[in-house]
């Protein structure tokens, strides 16, 4: 029976909290929550009641060409096929000339809701925008030096409740801006109550990211999409059809968009960004016309059988930052940003939509040809081999045997491990002994 954590847990030091967790849970070793002293201290700085940190795998999807510039993109994810899939699709897209992006604005909107506002409060507030801007000015001074700051104010009424809604746009440059925008709208409370003669219900940013809408697109010769015996033009036709299905059927659109977010959320995590904000904005945008739909569009330009081209596009809000929050203090986030050449928020958003689009192309390519399980299970094999006890080079040897036999269960892994060991290749074997899966182009999924 597990004991409850003692009172005073929250106020203890992180070292004490780790000991309390281990002593009240006999099956839990505190090192499972990380053993790097610096990271443990950082965890304590970042969140309350912390006991350590989660080490999530981070890998690199290679070979992106975005607006003519090459990028290798760090992604943090627990899902086996995400990085391989992004690399696979990116390689095809790069052969077609790479991605082109269209930028949104680095603007975050703050909202203030007011009840019992005077009938003419809308007009009165709109008329004193300059006064409100001056009230917020001390908070925005640094941002203005960076070229950001106040970008405007709107006042309207919610159609059903009649509540007054005030929206303030702030250009937060390279920051995602949640803290700054929340501080700005909170600083306006007293002024807004006085002018509207109403009462503030709440003041908070909107995570819709309405002005942070980015677009990525590509065009590739359909012939490049050939997969598993299906000719490229037919794969391209089926990709368009698959996208049409996700545009028509919300239940399929959820899975389709989840696949897009597999890559984008992984980039958000690798760079220390607020992945929930990105997800929330994405799914809200997917239902902006009242029905939940695919975030992507595809079309086939059929010039002739041989030179037909598939065009793909992803458009969505991308509220990411490269300064502030965890991006600035987490060493892995900082290193990930360094790998990307220390982009600003706009450049990072452009990379993110390309990752999402690559992820989607990889998923659809697999789904309309051989399905996702073959590639997925192939990648999964090493994980099962590890659980069965394979370590070091054994992992790859065992996984190769499992793949060759199409046996992906725990028993198959144990049998393969016993054989690998009996043949003496095991831990000391060389990778050259293992059948290789091909080059580093990844798998569609
Ligand atoms: C799996 O994580 C993602 C997919 O389900 C996406 C999709 O179905 O489009 C393969």
Question: Describe it for me?
Answer:
The chain has about 450 residues and is an alpha+beta fold. The protein has four domains: about 1-50, no CATH class; about 60-105 and about 215-370, 3-hydroxy-3-methylglutaryl-coenzyme A Reductase, Chain A, domain 2, CATH 3.90.770; about 105-205, Alpha-Beta Plaits (2-Layer Sandwich), CATH 3.30.70.420; about 375-435, no CATH class. Helices cover about 45% and strands about 15% of the residues. The protein is built from 16 helices and ten strands. The protein has helices spanning about 15-25, 35-45, 80-95, 120-125, 130-145, 180-185, 190-195, 230-250, 250-270, 275-285, 325-330, 330-340, 345-365, 375-385, 395-405, 410-420, and strands at about 60-65, 70-75, 100, 105-115, 150-155, 165-170, 200-205, 215-220, 295-300, 310-315. The strands form three sheets. Strands 3-8-10-9 form a four-stranded antiparallel beta sheet. Strands 5-6-4-7 form a four-stranded antiparallel beta sheet. A two-stranded antiparallel sheet has the order 1-2. A hairpin with a 6-residue loop joins strand 5 (about 150-155) and strand 6. Residues about 430-440 have low confidence and may be disordered. (R)-mevalonate binds near residues 79, 256 and 367. (R)-mevalonate binds near residues 79, 262, 367 and 372.
């Amino acid at each position: 029976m597990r004991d409850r954590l003692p009172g005073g847990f929250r106020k203890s030091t992180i070292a004490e909290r780790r000991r309390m967790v281990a002593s009240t849970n006999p099956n839990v070793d505190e090192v499972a929550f990380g053993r790097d002293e610096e990271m443990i201290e950082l965890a304590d700085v970042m969140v309350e009641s912390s006991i350590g940190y989660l080490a999530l795998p981070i890998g690199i999807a290679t070979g992106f060409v975005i607006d003519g510039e090459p990028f290798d993109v760090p992604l943090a994810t627990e899902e086996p096929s995400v990085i391989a899939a992004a690399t696979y699709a990116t390689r095809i897209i790069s052969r077609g000339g790479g991605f082109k992006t269209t930028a949104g604005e680095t603007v975050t909107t703050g909202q203030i809701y007011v009840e019992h506002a005077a009938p003419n409060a809308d007009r009165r507030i709109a008329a004193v925008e300059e006064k409100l801007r001056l009230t917020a000015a001390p908070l925005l001074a640094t941002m203005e030096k960076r070229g950001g700051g106040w970008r405007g104010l709107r006042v309207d009424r919610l159609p059903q409740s009649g509540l007054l809604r005030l929206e303030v746009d702030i250009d937060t440059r390279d920051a995602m801006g949640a803290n700054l925008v929340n501080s700005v709208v909170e600083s306006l409370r007293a002024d807004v109550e006085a002018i509207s003669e109403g009462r503030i219900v709440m003041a908070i940013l909107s995570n819709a990211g309405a002005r942070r809408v980015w677009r990525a697109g590509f065009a590739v010769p359909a012939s490049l999409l050939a997969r598993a015996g299906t000719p490229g033009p037919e794969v391209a036709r089926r990709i368009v059809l698959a996208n049409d299905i996700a545009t028509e059927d919300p239940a399929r659109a959820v899975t389709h968009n989840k696949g897009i977010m597999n890559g984008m959320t992984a980039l958000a995590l690798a760079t220390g960004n607020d992945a929930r904000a990105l997800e929330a904005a994405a799914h809200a945008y997917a239902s902006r016309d009242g029905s939940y739909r695919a975030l992507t569009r595809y079309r086939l330009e059929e010039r002739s059988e041989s030179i037909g081209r598939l065009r793909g596009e992803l458009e969505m809000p991308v509220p990411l930052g490269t300064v502030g929050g965890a991006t600035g203090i987490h060493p892995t986030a900082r290193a990930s940003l360094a790998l990307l050449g220390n982009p600003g928020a706009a450049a990072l958003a452009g990379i993110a939509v390309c990752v999402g689009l690559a992820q989607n192309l990889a998923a659809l390519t697999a789904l309309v040809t051989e399905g996702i399980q073959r590639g997925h299970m192939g990648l999964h094999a090493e994980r099962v081999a590890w659980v069965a006890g394979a370590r070091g080079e054994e992992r790859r040897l065992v996984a190769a045997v499992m793949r060759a036999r199409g046996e992906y269960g725990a028993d198959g892994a144990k049998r393969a491990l016993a054989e690998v060991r009996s043949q003496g290749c095991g831990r000391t074997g060389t990778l050259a002994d293992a059948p290789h899966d091909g080059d580093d182009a990844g798998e569609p999924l």
